[in-house]
Design goal:
1746 residues, mainly beta, 18-stranded mixed beta sheet, 7-stranded mixed beta sheet, 129 strands, 5% helix, 40% strand
């Protein structure tokens, strides 16, 4: 019952609170009141605004009509607010006199205007009534004690004292406090002794005078008073007749008096309105609008289901939309659209206290548009829109009145929160609150549109009354034409304003107390309308005053609007007589002011270049100074922060660059229906925009050559962004760089998505229909919020980089008819873990998956032939690659830097690899290359750090340079006999490499030439298979046989042969070719093994003949193509069919072509025998066809185009006939254009022209109706629209499938089912046992039903039947359920604000609210501004990551559970705070310590990081513990145990905090050879050359030794030799230089732990001794030392001491002539060059005998 009150009060109270009224009389001299301080008029207004919390949305204030007030005046804004709500009704142009004292009457009138107290009668207790203007308000002030009489007089003009003002406002606050309704109130109902109470929860249905009670627990008799609960409210009735039918008690009853039923009725509560109970009247169209989707649905159930799908709450934002279009007299047309959102009702009724209060709250918007004849018009009253019945309350009707001979357009939005109060003590009052939203008005000529709602409260306790409200707008025009040859020839006055009033009639009754009332109050009219447009025109031009001396030649005030004129600085100056609008207006002093500047093109069409007015709701004129406006120029409205709403005329086709850039206050934009072009940044930074509809006519968006910028860049608060149905291509860059979080649904009329359409946008989800065939370059690139994407099979053409850098994308479904994955399609999609390639993919293009660092799995298609360059570059998570057998080529760097890749398996089909295919694949350990490869290109496996071995395939001839360079673990390679070339830098570590191959082949030669160990390895084949063993191919076709040989490292030769080369030939790679018809055997021999394949060569199809190669068709026409495959001897003559554009013309599997829309498509027939033979037929469709799934889709454009031939078809399966009803506006150009109607058999039912179908219904036999509109090349009319189709069926409908759940609001069982084809309604049956006892519970046309009468604790069983005119369906399935307890709405949280330590963004925290399941965060940019939903979370904190620097934001939060949202929290505000950001996560790689074999982690240096934390676990998803903290970028896990696999991750640390975790790497300890110790080195000289010669000990475990040399002991040492020997002679040493040497030992583990000790040495001569043949004396000889200029000879008689120089010579011999006989001498020499001296030579001795 209470739910219905909401519905009923809905339309009336909305006007009572829409805007206010009152009158301020001319100030008179106040009587003296002594020295007591008073309040001024403006101070009193300010106090009223504060007390009643009057609010007006920013930039929706009315114009300032008062001559003595402007923006600098104290209280200016509060005065405008009071004007907005009718509190002030002083005529425009008057002086307000703000500093004058507020008089007693002024205070009494304005305060009671707000509180709405009504007098029981017009008896006044004060004597000076003649001095009073507002007698009733003054009496209310006396009655309530606000003001006292002085000697029986009220003294209306006496100044109000401060004490009086305080007392009055205190009483007002007390009244308002008493109007607060508690949702947790303990309701009490006590009934009279003889009253029978039917318990709450019993299934009750009240229908006028009949009450139906299912399973009635009490016995009712004629004459008894009984109470049933309707919407949880007890309603008393007197039974006049009682009948029991099965388990249903049917009672004929009348409403009982409250006093006869209740002892106590004391209840309070708040109830949501029931939107399902509205009944459309007289052709009104009802729909249900979902704000989150910006979409309307035909039924409430559909809207509710849509909300559920998007995660809506139990109180979804669903608006009731009531639409009506009427054609009035003389072609005058009326369009009405009323939207009602979130209606709730609060009630408080206490019969004991004698108090009752009902308050309605809701949001409403009214949009009215009337286009009429300028000369004559219409007058139609009482146009009924809706009836809203409320069981237990009453019902109400909403109507419209129209009187016009012109046109009017208006939009009004407001929040209503008002009601009616009645009490024995205070009587009747209409207290109101004041919250205005928005309005705009444009009028032309004389017109009036009025909206009236009348509510009957006839069944609710206490009240028996009707409430009504009226609101509307008026346009007035009066003109005078002169014939005196003087100017002006014509004067016209034009005005437009709003009006509103409310009233009530009826009675209220508490026991014996009864009061009747009948009142009406004006809220505002032409004198104080918040929108008041008054203009004077002369000869079509706006002027400030009449040159004829009167504003229309018949007096200054012929319109009753006074002399005030709307000035140029008005917020509403744009509204007016648009047909006479000029570029100039006039200020208050009559001076001209330029509003618009413009330029003209060659056709004299205007482009607006600037606007200089102050309008907030701007209607841009279609003509200026007589020129048609076709464009909004570059920057025309740039930076206009006052603009809140803009309506652009349909004449505009282009909005240029930055046209509305920086209009931050703009919240509503209406784009013209003929718009074609949107410029760069057209609406850049319009942060107030929340909704945009792109007209279907928009073809392109301009953008910079190198940039891609959306017209909506910076519109970051957009909530809905829609494309008009009928659009065929989403324009380029339409949302590029617009970061608003958006869910986009692309209309099913779209076939292409343009270049960069959504690039770098905030797109969250996108729905692409199956009409789209093309997605252009970068369409969704950089959409970092996009997590999932489904591309329909209709898409056949995708550009490059379509999803590049969609870093959150995790799930992608690609169309099955894709032919390739084009370049960079998924490049940079760092969250993509798995990709399933469609079966039809033939190529993976350049960089298709480059930098997809999370990609772990590739599900290959069966078709790819190419993997191009960089295709999987840096796919770090990829661990295995098994290339499909269809692939023939792998491009450069295809798997470059895939750090987790361990296994590669190439099929034999791969014949070509690019360079660096596996470069730097650090984890690669297993490689199998197919036999089709002939070359290992340069750098193929370079830097594959853990690759140890590989077997080169048998057909490879070349291994390129650097193929295995820097593969530090690489020790083994098997090279087949086919290899003839190996690059000089193919391998890096020759000393530890072993080449396995066949002796005598190039492998052995290369090994020997490069000092590499070679092992002769003769391996015979043990098993070979040939696949397939039997093959059928077409003549002329080729196929490859797959040869598998075991083991892989076999060394046998392979040979192929054909048994009949006239039938089949075979290459040395196994490629067979059919050259003649017949059968042959292919045999392959490998060593001692052989295998064979039988090949059958058959006759293929060589051509296909079609019965037509081209054809022109009408839309929805069919044509049978017939194909013949030639020759007749072809073995397989089957064919398949396809269309190049199924949206234009489709073809089925049998060649039946169906035409759909205007354009051309090519139908291709293809041979299915693999021959590749095709034939084509070009289909040209002359018109458009529409296959309609709903009757309302059968509608032409309005007006329809010339040369139209379009057709529409609708089918209702199973129907025997269709009754098709046409809209009353249906009209074709009479006698020229025609509508043709066809039935299912294609027979013409009728041919119509003019209005012959307007409002008519025709019957069409069969299940289908086709409508074709044919127009000529000139002239048109409105067209046609089908408003409904009634289906007549020969068969009853099928049974629905039913599901059960619980109502989120009430917990009652809620049934839902599928819509059954042909069903007109549904019947719901219920029982308390599954097998029997079912009774009819209700009938509905919807596909859902809530059992509101279900009792708690009882299990109910339900089933449903579908109904049509042929009968009932079988029963549905049975479902069962119980009432479920409903959790109350949660309390509001208490919010605090701080900042994120990491980002400095505002961070909200709040208490955990009991029962809350989530929280919603709202944000605005001003405290009282419009709050929009920022996010929904389940935690008790929220960081506003999107907050901009320098902007103060205001936040509030609600708690949410299954029952709805709480009230708002307190409001908090804050800005961004500068902080040091946390470091980014490092990228970690794993290897092993060369010395210990322990796992060793390395990572990149992270900017700003001061240290790093290393964590370890023993399973990937296990518990990680801190292992250590380091400042370096590496860490060795020295404590790792052998045999255990460890998992590691790392965090970077800075003063700002810790980064996120790095990637996870894993590894275990590896056994290693220890590094060798340093050798011990000695130095001497070569016995042959005298050069320094080093020798050292053999170091255990050393594989080689490295010798270093320097020319200073502590100088720079360089490597001069690496050797396996234990000695080294420095043959390059030169005379005169001292050399220093050190040596290190090497093995696989690395270098020795240090160098040997440094030794030093020089070159020395090599000395020999003999005896002179002449004298017998000792003769010394030596070889010449290069560079020596002389030699010094030393002698001693002791070997190790006592040497002295005995000679200096330049010769290379010396005879010691002075030697004594029989004395032993020892000699040594040095070579000398300048000051440089060599080492001493070796020592020789001699003993002369004589």
């Amino acid at each position: 019952m209470i739910k219905r009150i909401v519905s009923i009060l809905l339309a009336l109270v909305m006007f009572a609170t829409l805007l206010p009224a009152g009158l301020i009389g001319t100030a008179e001299a106040a009587e003296s009141t002594g020295a007591e301080a008073g309040v001024s008029r403006i101070e009193w207004v300010q106090q009223l605004v504060e007390t009643f919390n009057m609010t007006v949305e920013e930039d929706n204030y009315p114009d300032n009509y008062y001559s003595d007030m402007d923006e600098s005046s104290p209280g200016y804004r509060d005065l405008l607010v009071a004007v907005e709500f009718g509190v002030i009704d002083l005529e425009a142009g008057s002086a307000f006199e703000p500093e004058q004292p507020a008089t007693r009457e002024f205070a009494a009138h304005t305060l009671n205007y707000c509180l709405g107290f009504q007098l029981d009668n017009s008896t006044y207790t004060y004597a000076d009534t003649a001095d009073v203007t507002y007698a009733d308000d003054v009496q209310v002030a006396v009655n309530r004690g606000w003001l006292t009489l002085v000697n029986g007089r009220f003294l209306p003009q006496r100044a109000l004292t401060s004490a009086e003002a305080t007392a009055m406002l205190a009483d007002a606050a007390q009244v308002l406090k008493g109007l607060v309704v508690s949702e947790s109130y303990n309701n009490t109902y006590t009934f009279k002794a003889d009253v029978i109470e039917i318990p709450n929860g019993t299934d009750v249905l009240v229908d006028e005078s009949t009450v139906r009670i299912t399973n009635c627990p009490k016995t009712l008799t004629n004459g008894c008073i009984f109470v049933v609960y309707v919407n949880d409210i007890p309603v008393p009735y007197i039974a006049t007749a009682v009948a029991v039918k099965g388990n249903v008690t049917v009672v004929t009853a009348t409403r009982a008096e409250d006093a006869d039923a209740f002892e106590v009725f004391d209840a309070q509560g708040v109830v949501d309105a029931d939107l399902t109970q509205v009944e459309a009247l007289d052709g009104t169209e009802l729909s249900y609008y979902v704000e989150e989707l910006d979409q309307e649905f035909q039924t409430y159930a559909m809207a509710r289901d849509a909300v559920a799908r998007i995660g809506g709450t139990t109180s979804p934002k669903i608006e009731l939309s009531c639409k009506r279009e009427l054609t009035l007299l003389n072609g005058v047309k009326l369009s009405l659209d009323v939207k009602i959102k979130k209606p709730t009702i609060s009630y408080s009724i206490s019969m004991l206290k004698g108090e009752a209060y009902v308050k309605l709250s809701y949001d409403i918007s009214v949009n009215y548009k009337v286009k009429g004849d300028l000369a004559t018009g219409s007058n139609i009253n009482d146009i009924k829109l809706i009836y809203w019945g409320v069981p237990g309350v009453g019902g109400f009707v909403v109507t419209y009145d129209v009187e016009l001979s012109g046109s009017i357009t208006g939009i009004q939005e407001w929040h209503v929160d008002s009601g009616i109060s009645a009490s024995i003590k205070d009587g009747i009052s209409f207290p109101r609150t004041f919250q205005a939203k928005a309005f705009s008005l444009v009028v032309e000529l004389t017109c009036q549109v009025g909206f009236q709602a009348k509510l009957g409260i006839t069944e609710l306790p206490v009240f028996n009354a009707y409430l009504y409200a009226k609101m509307g707008c008026v346009g007035k025009v009066k003109g005078q034409t002169y014939n005196d040859n003087a100017a002006p020839h014509q004067c016209v006055n034009m005005a437009g304003y709003l009006y509103a009033s409310y009233g009530a009639t009826g009675s209220v009754k508490f026991g014996n107390y009864k009061k009747s009332f009948s009142i009406e109050h004006k809220i505002y009219d032409e004198k104080n309308s918040p929108i008041r447009i008054v203009h004077h025109y002369e000869d079509g031009t706006l002027v400030p005053s009449c040159m004829r001396g009167g504003d229309s030649g018949s007096g200054q005030d012929d319109l009753g609007l006074g002399s005030w004129r709307t000035p140029a600085d008005s917020r509403y100056t744009s509204s007016g007589w648009s047909s006479g609008f000029g570029s100039k207006a006039y200020d208050k002093s009559g001076n001209p002011v330029t509003l618009y500047t413009y330029t003209l093109d060659d056709d004299d069409n205007a482009t607006i270049t600037a606007y200089k007015g102050n309008a907030t709701a701007l209607v841009i004129p279609s003509t200026i100074d007589g020129y048609t406006v076709v464009a909004i120029g570059n920057g025309a409205f740039r930076g206009n922060v006052k603009l809140a709403a803009v309506m652009i005329p349909d004449t505009v086709t282009k909005i240029e660059d930055s046209a509305f850039s920086g209009c931050t206050g703009l919240t509503d934009i209406s784009l013209p229906k003929n718009l074609k072009t949107l410029g760069v940044d057209a609406f850049y930074g319009c942060s107030g925009l929340t909704s945009v509809l792109i007209p279907k006519t928009v073809e392109n968006t301009q953008h910079y050559y190198n940039g891609r910028f959306s017209p909506f860049r910076g519109c970051n608060n957009l909530q809905t962004f829609r494309f008009e149905d009928g659009m065929t291509r989403i324009p380029d860059t339409i949302l590029c760089y617009c970061t608003a979080k958006l869910d986009i649904v692309i209309p099913d009329s779209v076939t292409e998505i343009g270049d960069s359409a959504f690039r770098n946008s905030g797109l969250v989800t996108v729905t692409i229909p199956d009409t789209v065939t093309k997605i252009e370059d970068s369409a969704f690139s950089g959409c970092t919020g996009l997590t999932s994407m489904m591309v329909p099979d209709s898409v056949t053409d995708m550009g490059t980089g379509v999803f590049a850098n969609c870093t959150s994308l995790t799930n992608v479904t690609l169309p099955n008819i894709r032919q390739n994955i084009v370049a960079s399609t998924f490049e940079g999609c760092t969250s993509l873990e798995k990709i399933v390639l469609p079966e039809t993919v033939t190529a993976i293009r350049d960089s298709a998956f480059k930098n997809c660092t999370a990609l772990k799995e590739i599900v290959w298609s069966k078709a790819p032939g190419l993997i191009e360059a960089n295709a999987f570059y840096n796919c770090d998570a990829l661990t295995e690659v098994e290339i499909p057998t269809t692939v023939t080529s792998v491009g450069d760097q295809a798997f470059y830097d895939c750090d987790s890749l361990t296994t590669v398996d190439f099929p034999d089909t791969v014949t070509k690899m690019g360079t660096k295919v596996f470069y730097d694949c650090d984890a690669l350990t297993s490689v199998k290359l197919g036999s089709g490869i002939t070359t290992i290109p340069a750098s193929t496996f370079e830097h594959c750090d853990v690759l140890e071995s590989i077997v080169i395939p048998r057909r490879v001839t070349t291994i390129g340079n650097s193929a295995f360079k820097d593969c530090v673990k690489f020790t083994s390679i098997t090279i087949p006999r086919s290899v003839t070339s190996i690059g000089s830098t193919a391998f890096s570590y020759l000393n530890k490499l072993t080449i396995y191959g066949v002796a005598g082949t190039y492998a052995e030669t290369y090994a020997n030439d490069n000092g590499i160990k070679f092992v002769d390895k003769q391996v015979g084949a043990t098993d070979i298979t040939l696949d397939p063993a039997r093959l059928t191919i077409n003549k002329g076709a080729s196929a490859m046989l797959t040869l598998t040989i075991k083991p892989e490292d076999f060394t046998d030769t392979v040979s192929w042969k054909s048994s009949d080369t006239s039938v089949v030939t075979v290459s040395d790679t196994g490629v067979v070719k059919g050259v003649g018809l017949g059968t042959a055997t292919i045999k392959v021999v490998v060593g001692s093994k052989s295998a064979s394949c039988t090949v059958i060569v058959q006759q293929p199809v060589t051509s296909i003949s079609l019965n037509s190669s081209s054809r022109t068709m009408d839309a929805l026409e069919t044509f049978q193509l017939t194909a013949t495959a030639n020759p007749s001897t072809a073995v397989d003559r089957r064919v398949s069919w396809s269309s190049s554009d199924p949206a234009i013309a489709s073809v089925d599997a049998n060649g039946l072509v169906t035409a759909y829309k205007k354009g051309s498509a090519v139908i291709t027939v293809s041979a299915m025998d693999g021959s590749g033979v095709t034939a084509t037929c070009k289909i040209t469709v002359a018109n458009n066809g529409y296959v309609c799934t709903s009757p309302t889709q059968m509608e032409s454009p309005h007006n329809y185009p010339n040369n139209c031939g379009d057709a529409w078809i609708y089918t209702a399966a199973g129907a025997t006939s269709l009754k098709v009803t046409f809209d009353k506006r249906t009209n074709m150009e009479s006698g020229f254009d025609y509508l043709y109607i066809y039935n299912a058999a294609g027979e013409q039912v009728g041919k119509y022209t003019g209005t012959s179908l307007a409002g008519k219904t025709i019957t069409v036999t069969g299940p289908s109706v086709k409508i074709k509109l044919v127009s000529d090349d000139s002239g048109n009319e409105w067209g046609f629209k089908v408003t409904g189709i009634t289906v007549t069926s020969s068969a009853a409908p099928t049974a629905p499938v039913v599901r059960i759940s619980n109502s989120a609001a009430s917990g009652k069982p809620m049934l839902t089912w599928n819509a059954v084809e042909g069903a007109t309604s549904y019947r719901i049956y219920r029982s308390t046992s599954k097998g029997s006892g079912y009774s009819l519970l209700g009938t509905t046309t919807a596909t859902s039903y809530t059992n509101t009468g279900a009792k708690a604790g009882t299990t109910y069983y339900y089933r449903v039947k579908a109904v049509n005119d042929a009968g009932l369906s079988p029963y549905s399935n049975i479902v069962s359920g119980q009432v479920k307890s409903v959790t109350p709405k949660p309390a509001a949280p208490v919010v605090k604000i701080g900042h994120s330590a990491a980002s400095g963004k505002p961070m909200l925290t709040w208490n955990a609210v009991s029962g809350a399941t989530s929280y919603k965060v709202y944000r605005a940019t001003s405290q009282n501004g419009a709050y929009s939903l920022l996010g929904s979370v389940t935690v008790t904190s929220y960081t506003n990551t999107g907050a901009k620097d320098g902007v103060t934001y205001y936040y509030k939060v609600t708690a949410v559970n299954d029952s709805g949202e709480s009230a708002y929290s307190n409001i908090v505000s804050g800005q961004n705070k500068a902080v040091t950001p946390k470091p980014s996560a490092p990228v970690v790689k794993i290897g092993h310590s060369a010395s210990s074999g322990k796992p060793m982690l390395t990572w990149n240096a992270v900017s700003g990081a001061t240290s790093y934390k290393v964590y370890r676990a023993t399973s990937q998803n296990g518990t990680y513990s801190l292992l250590g903290t380091v400042t370096a970028t590496s860490y060795t896990n020295t404590g790792a145990k052998a045999g255990t696999t460890y998992y590691y991750k790392v965090k970077a640390v800075s003063s700002a905090g810790e980064s996120a975790y790095s990637n996870i790497v894993s590894g275990k300890s590896k056994a290693v050879t220890p590094k060798p110790s340093a050798p011990v080195v000695k130095i001497g000289h070569s016995a042959t050359s005298g050069k320094p010669m080093l020798t050292w000990n053999a170091v255990d475990g050393a594989a080689s030794y490295r010798v270093y040399r320097a020319t200073a002991k502590n100088g720079a040492y360089s490597v001069i030799n690496t050797t396996k020997a234990l000695t080294y002679t420095n043959t390059g040493a030169a005379l005169g230089t001292t050399y220093y040497y050190k040596v290190e030992a090497l093995n696989a583990a690395g270098k020795s732990l240090g160098f040997s000790a440094v030794v030093e040495g020089k070159v020395a001569p090599v000395l020999a001794v003999g005896y002179s043949s002449v004298s017998g004396k000792p003769q010394l000889t030596w070889k010449a030392v290069p560079g020596a200029t002389e030699y010094q000879v030393y002698r001693s008689t002791q070997q190790n001491s006592g040497y002295s120089k005995i000679n200096t010579t330049t010769a290379t011999s010396y005879v010691n002539t002075g030697a004594k006989a029989n004395t032993t001498y020892y000699y040594k020499i040095v070579a000398v060059k300048g000051t440089a001296v060599s080492d001493f030579s070796n020592i020789v001795s001699a003993r002369p005998s004589k």
